[in-house]
């Protein structure tokens, strides 16, 4: 399998120094009490925002500090070519950063923050798909006043190669489509996807492809799933098996906890989510690799909430504490991207994998162990993404997997199975007042 070239543009290590006025005035920014944030823009990409910490004016920013990532832009080959081509006829593309004091957000359409100043970093992106480049690392003066009285803004901007394998389903996962590898204009079949259901009341209808070892398979599914058999509104028993070109099963996603409407409502709640187990073959049976939980968020977001955690295996036994690699929300109307990126910070200020204060490789229930002490810290930077369409839209998920995280066919297949599970979770979490498409209604009618 040949990867596609991608470039990862990272903005990190933000900081702000503002001279303290000898005589306080209403217009003076007081670093001890005034919050600060910035908006980061790259042409043709959605803007990103990040908090900017203050540091004392007599301090220097330590170069040895673990990078605090503020924003990441992922450039495909075509996007990179467009930006590079423009630089031959006009000014080089620039990263533009607007710095504000005050709280983020708007009131009646008016920004709450007050603009402190803007900085611009020219980008020479030619050749960055094969070689890393640093565009800026240090301080920039903000404002037009004398240098001694101006604010100083620190940032690091760099681009580095981030090649990825790209896969695309040739149809919706519940329609058992083929999965193609994409490289430029070339589409090559690499996997097939088999959707089926496990009727808990009739074991004979279980998918044979999920039973490398029937006894062991049932024990895995039972140990991670829920034995609840509630009457009423629930969706359960869905499974997807990924096969290679020879027809051998190389990964699977099995719904082990039913998606059940919370009492008195038509939605799957965060407090009682449904879940999938992502399985990989090993030693003649299926072995659990990860667990995906999904639910329907309440409130104005009304989206698909999800959490994915890695299941560590120690001395042949599966540990109880999972390693959370991704937790976020997707719009139920517009869809979005399911992303595992252990090198990005959260835009809402919460600790996320990749934030040095909360390593993505820490067990979910045991605090911060540090990057080098946990055996599953092989996952670094961008890991994978999977596209998810909104409710009622035709979905043909595209899956991107970082090259360093694929050592064999089973590695790639596990991420493809995970992408299928998150796509199907959009249907599993639909309001129970809405009817699913026929491929999924068949299952719902049997077990409802």
UniProtKB/TrEMBL annotation:
Amino acid composition bias (Polar residues), ranges on this chain: 207-225
Compositionally biased region (Basic and acidic residues): 226-235
Stretches the record annotates as Disordered: 207-235, 345-364
InterPro entries from the UniProt entry: DUF1005
Domain of life, per lineage: Eukaryota
Protein name: Formin-like protein 18
């Amino acid at each position: 399998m040949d990867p596609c070239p991608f470039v990862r543009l990272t903005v990190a290590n933000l900081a702000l120094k503002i001279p303290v006025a000898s005589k306080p005035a209403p217009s003076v920014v007081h670093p001890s009490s005034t919050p600060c944030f910035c908006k980061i823009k790259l042409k043709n990409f959605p803007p990103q925002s990040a908090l900017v910490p203050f540091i004392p004016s007599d301090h220097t920013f330590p170069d040895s500090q673990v990078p605090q990532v503020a924003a990441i832009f992922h450039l495909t080959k075509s996007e990179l070519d467009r930006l590079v081509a423009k630089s031959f006829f006009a000014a080089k593309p620039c990263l533009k950063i607007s710095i504000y004091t005050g709280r983020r957000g708007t009131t009646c359409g008016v920004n709450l923050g007050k603009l402190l100043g803007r900085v611009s970093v020219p980008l020479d992106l030619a050749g960055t798909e094969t070689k890393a480049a640093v565009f800026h690392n240090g301080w920039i003066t903000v404002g037009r006043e004398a240098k001694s009285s101006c604010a100083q803004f620190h940032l690091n901007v760099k681009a580095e190669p981030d090649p990825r394998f790209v896969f695309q389903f040739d149809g919706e996962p519940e329609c058992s489509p083929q999965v193609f590898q994409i490289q430029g204009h070339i589409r090559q079949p690499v996997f097939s996807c088999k959707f089926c259901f496990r009727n808990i009341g009739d074991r004979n209808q279980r998918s044979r492809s999920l039973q490398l070892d029937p006894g062991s398979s049932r024990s895995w599914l039972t140990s991670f799933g829920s034995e609840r058999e509630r009457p009423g509104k629930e969706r359960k028993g869905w499974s997807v098996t990924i096969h290679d070109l020879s027809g051998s099963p190389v990964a699977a996603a099995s719904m082990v906890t039913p998606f059940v409407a919370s009492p008195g409502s038509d939605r799957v709640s965060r407090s009682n989510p449904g879940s999938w187990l992502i399985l990989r073959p090993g030693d003649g049976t299926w072995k659990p690799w990860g667990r995906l939980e999904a639910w329907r968020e309440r409130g104005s977001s009304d989206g698909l909430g999800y959490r994915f955690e890695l299941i560590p295996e120690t001395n042949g036994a599966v540990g109880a504490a999972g390693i959370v690699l991704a937790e976020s929300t997707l719009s139920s109307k517009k869809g979005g991207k399911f992303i595992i990126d252990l090198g990005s910070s959260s835009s809402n200020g919460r600790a996320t994998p990749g934030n040095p204060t909360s390593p993505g490789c820490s067990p979910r229930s045991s605090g911060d162990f540090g990057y080098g002490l946990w055996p599953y810290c092989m996952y670094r930077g961008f890991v994978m993404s999977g596209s998810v369409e909104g409710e009622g839209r035709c979905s043909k998920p595209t899956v991107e997997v970082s090259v360093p995280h694929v050592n064999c066919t089973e590695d790639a297949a596990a991420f493809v199975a995970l992408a299928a599970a998150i796509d199907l979770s959009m249907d599993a979490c639909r309001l129970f007042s809405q009817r699913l498409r026929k491929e999924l209604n068949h299952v719902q009618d049997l077990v409802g």
